[in-house]
Amino acid sequence: MSELVAPSSDTMGERRRRVVTAMLRAAYAWSMRQEQPEAMREVARMTGFVMEAHGPGSGPDTPLALVDALRRPLGTLPIFAEAGGSGDEGLRRVVLIEAGEGGDQLSATAHDLVCEHVIPLDAEADAHSWLPSWTRMDADRIRARAFAAMAGPSDQHIYVASRRLLIEHPAGLERTLQERVGESGARIVPGGYRPIPDSALFRTRNGDGWWWPCPDCRWPMGVAGRRVRCRYQPHSAMFEVAKRRGSEKPKLTRIDEGPTVKQPEARPARGSVCVDQGVWRFIVVPGSSELRIAARLEKLGAKVELWPQMDSYDLHVAIGGTELQLDVKEYRSPQRLIADLRGRTPRAQVRVVLPQTHEMQAETVRAALPEITLLTERGLVQQIRRIGKGIEERKDAGGK
Ligand SMILES: [Zn+2]
Q1: How far is the CA of 24 from the centre of ligand 1 (A)?
Q2: Which of 2, 212, 226, 309 could form an S-S bond across to 264 if both were Cys, CB 3.0 to 4.6 Å?
């Protein structure tokens, strides 16, 4: 292929994202085709997008061929095999549709990793309201929409209270949540809390629904048969519903050997609500790491400000004359993180922090972007601890 006709890597990256988005939307629609009359029309529309990105004579060219492709790894699509193949091995391995107990369903990675690659396909992206936001809008758009509702008249105090409330209470009893909103003065995103989705409910024999908050992010964990776990894979605790007689409140047993966590207790579906999946994935998930890091640093004596100047970065940390501006970056795909950091390089004084669950990405990101100051959560905590110790020692010396 001559260099003149080879697409630039940017164009290729963009075309691949369009294909990934169309495949995810088609997979979601396919998994909903019993309930949603518009579903097959969406699969057909998405076939058009996949064909357009591939060009003539390559890639699935009918809705049925597309559905077939949903059951194979994304990497088998011709667009991933072309020159300048995507370095994103994780994405190439993704299979979007798996056979489940109740028929075809979206795979775990669809919920967790693929949504990081979504870009709006057309102006209609917003109009198709039956599709959830995380299948058709990028993370920035989902966040921007939510934050615009929280910030109100550009009030930093209301903004922080609202964002904190969402992160700390992404699900719960509607009555309790309403009280909390009232007390804190927070503003909640339009459409804010909604009923717990069926895919997060376990039904006892009398038909009552129950859900469990994830020990890490507090959002309802996904339920598949008796298996229960958070849809975000780095929140790795896995549970099984213990067999009990009749319609008693169900109980979980831990089935993996990860670090000890507090055993979640079943909550009744009736009267319970949770934030939408897009808000959970792109605000609550990273937010729970931001709040955890802030709390760790405060414990070491630092003063931490959350999302200063209406979110110009994540954390402002001050301790003994040292001030740090930090942006916590939590991406499942390091390639997506690198691409986003390239597209929008943080200001020189802002350091990028990888939370403890993502520290293994440090080497890849440093190699790709040597100009960025990158810290791991562990490295950051050590640095603040050293400064805190120095202050203590000087105090002791001064007191003698
Ligand atoms: Zn979780």
Answers
A1: 21
A2: 212
